[in-house]
Design brief:
Blueprint (H helix, E strand, L loop, with lengths): L1 H12 L2 H31 L11 H38 L15 H29 L9 H11 L9 E9 L1 H8 L1 H21 L2 H6 L4 E4 L4 E6 L5 H14 L4 E3 L2 E3 L2 E9 L6 H18 L4 E3 L2 H23 L2 E10 L5 E11 L5 E2 L1 H11 L2 H21 L5 E5 L2 H6 L2 H12 L6 E6 H6 L1 H13 L3 E7 L6 H6 L4 E4 L1 H5 L7 H15 L2 E5 L4 H9 L4 E3 L9 H13 L6 H4 L1
Parallel strand pairs: 6-7, 9-11, 11-12, 12-13, 13-14, 14-15, 15-16
Antiparallel strand pairs: 1-3, 1-6, 2-3, 4-5, 8-9, 8-16, 9-10
Helix pairs in contact: 2-3, 6-7, 7-9, 11-12, 13-15, 15-17
Length: 584
């Protein structure tokens, strides 16, 4: 084993000419002594000469041996050196970055090496073409032909270190407005074409910007990100004013509708802007801060552009903290139901109640629904909260039923609960556990959800309504209703939004709107509930116009289970509207 390692090291360090010379010496020695033995044997047999008698003196033999060895070694060394030179030239050819066959192939010695070189040239050329294609695929978005996330991240990494407060860089993360609705309208294939048109419009608009703002776009990268998002990175943005000018131009470019397959589609565009190094010093922070600014645009309005500020980071941290607390509250079942009564305008009796979610922390702190409901919707926790409130509402309604009180309970259903696809099973399971009859439960969905997913609403509510459950449309009149669609859905109740009810005494148009809703409901044979009733004048107007029920602080705020049960007992004994101050 040691001998083998020694030979491996020996031959591993030996050059080709040296190896050829050594081999030639060994071969020459072997041939010389073989010929010497043949000659001595011949002379001993045929010439009767003793085998020990040499044909030449020893000195002559030694000289002959040395000459033969030198000649063989020299010849082998020269031949091997020539071969080595050819191999070195071939190696240089392989190491040449061009390797495109432009050099003279015939200058390569030895036919085998020329054939090998030709094969290598073809293979390398093919690999280079494939590598170029792979590089293009790696850095280009296939939907739009623009740069992709990898390309813009590379551009940021290469140029961001040169950004300074005197010569800042900037990133704008863009998101198309109403693209999801357009995709539903056009279909997936056409929506890809629409996205490509949007990318081209962005590219053309940026190319047409002149002046100082145009200079800010020098060496800029326009990239298509995931879904319907784009990004513009400007390594030489210059100033906020230049970036703001570019943002206004982008927004104006999307004012005109798109034409696709004979259809007209309107898209807006919104963006979050971050400057570097003022507000970010890495690609990760650039995108995170731009996304924060864009998210605030979505929360405060439907469209627009906004620069990142450090305050947004504090807001985000507070939001993340609230999200952690929200998850903990769901796990600890800290969400409770309070009940606001619905009073029949004709009889003055409480005929129903709406279950409202309230969050009381273990330390007694009450979190406003306006703070946690949007976050719960965003995180998907609204489904679990909704199930907890549904179960609590059904348990309370079961108690009312045992008390002989003919009062139903209404529970709001969020779009997330509809999207999960198991709402029907969840409701039936809760009814089974609590023992509440289905005709004592009413589910409320928003008008926008009914319009956007009518088939889903019909699919989910069909089995439940067959069991006797009712369906109400909440906040009616605040959205863009397709009335023909609404009339085809299985609704039992229209709830008039509180903004119309509160405006009855101060807005001249509000009474007409309320009367129109009431007339439509009467024509369709549906019940109506007016939300936010706070004064006797509002209640009297609604009663005279044929509204079925009223709900609001005129009768009671939301009350926990025990207090609401006492309220029902008192109201049954004296079925008259109660002032809020007397109840509380």
């Amino acid at each position: 084993m040691k001998k083998k390692r020694f030979l491996s090291r020996l031959f591993g360090t030996m050059t080709i000419p040296a190896f050829a010379s050594l081999a030639a010496v060994g071969m020459a020695l072997a041939i010389f002594f073989m010929l010497l033995v043949i000659e001595l044997t011949y002379r001993a047999i045929f010439l009767d000469v003793h085998i020990s008698d040499l044909p030449n003196p020893p000195v002559v033999l030694v000289v002959e041996i040395i000459v033969a060895l030198a000649g063989a070694a020299g010849s082998a060394y020269l031949a091997a050196s020539k071969f080595r030179n050819s191999l070195e030239r071939f190696n240089d050819f392989l190491m040449d970055a061009r390797a495109d066959g432009a050099t003279d192939l015939e200058s390569m010695q030895f036919a085998e090496l020329r054939r090998l070189r030709a094969g290598v040239t073809r293979t390398v050329s093919k690999l280079r073409r494939e590598n170029a294609l792979l590089r293009e695929t790696a850095f280009i978005d296939p939907r739009t032909g623009l740069a992709n996330m990898i390309a813009i991240d590379k551009a940021i990494s290469e140029t961001l270190p040169q950004a300074s407060f005197e010569a800042p860089a900037a990133l704008i993360v863009l998101d198309l407005d109403r693209f999801s609705r357009a995709s539903e309208q056009l279909g997936s294939y056409a929506s890809e074409a629409l996205l490509a048109q949007a990318g081209q419009r962005l590219k053309d608009e940026l190319a047409g910007i002149a002046g100082p703002a145009g200079a800010a776009l020098r060496d800029a990268t326009l990239a298509a990100l995931q879904a319907d998002e784009f990004a513009v990175y400007m390594p030489t943005a210059g100033s906020r004013e230049h970036v703001a000018t570019i943002a206004r131009a982008i927004r104006q470019a999307f004012a005109a509708p798109f034409e696709l397959n004979g259809q007209t589609v309107s898209l807006g565009i919104s963006g979050g802007i971050v400057m570097a190094p003022e507000d970010a010093d890495s690609a990760q922070k650039l995108f995170r801060h731009a996304e924060l600014a864009l998210r605030l645009v979505r929360e405060e309005a439907t469209s627009g552009f906004r620069f990142f500020t450090p305050r947004l980071t504090r807001v985000a941290r507070g939001k993340y903290k609230l999200e952690d607390e929200l998850r903990e509250a769901v796990a600890n079942r800290e969400f409770k139901a309070v009940f606001q009564p619905k009073v029949d305008f004709k009889t003055g009796k409480v005929v129903g109640a709406e279950a409202l979610a309230r969050w009381r922390r273990h330390n007694g702190k009450i979190i406003s629904p306006a703070a946690f409901i949007p976050l719960a919707e965003e995180t998907g926790l609204i489904s679990q909260i909704g199930e907890q409130i549904l179960e609590a509402a059904c348990q309370s309604a079961r108690v009312w039923m045992k008390e002989g009180l003919d009062v139903s309970v209404a529970v709001n259903v969020s779009p997330r609960q509809f999207e999960r696809g198991n709402l029907t099973d969840t409701v039936m399971d809760v009814l089974k556990r609590t023992g509440l009859h289905p005709n004592r439960l009413e589910l409320e969905i928003t008008e926008s959800m009914a319009v956007e997913s009518p088939a889903k609403v019909a699919e989910v509510m069909g089995p439940l309504r067959m069991m006797g459950m009712k369906l109400a449309i909440d906040d009616f009149g605040t959205g863009h209703s397709n009335l023909s669609m609404l009339t085809q859905l299985p609704f039992d109740v229209f709830k008039i939004d509180r903004q119309f009810v509160s405006a009855l005494e101060g807005d001249k148009q509000a009474p007409a709107i309320v009367e129109m809703i009431l007339a439509m409901a009467e024509t369709l044979g549906l019940q109506t509930v007016a939300e936010g009733v706070e004064t006797e004048r509002q209640a009297d107007f609604l009663r005279r116009r044929g509204c079925t029920m009223g709900q609001g602080f005129l009768y009671s705020p939301g009350l926990p289970h025990g207090a609401f049960l006492d309220f029902l007992r008192a109201f049954r004994a004296n079925p008259q509207p109660l002032d809020t101050r007397k109840v509380s």
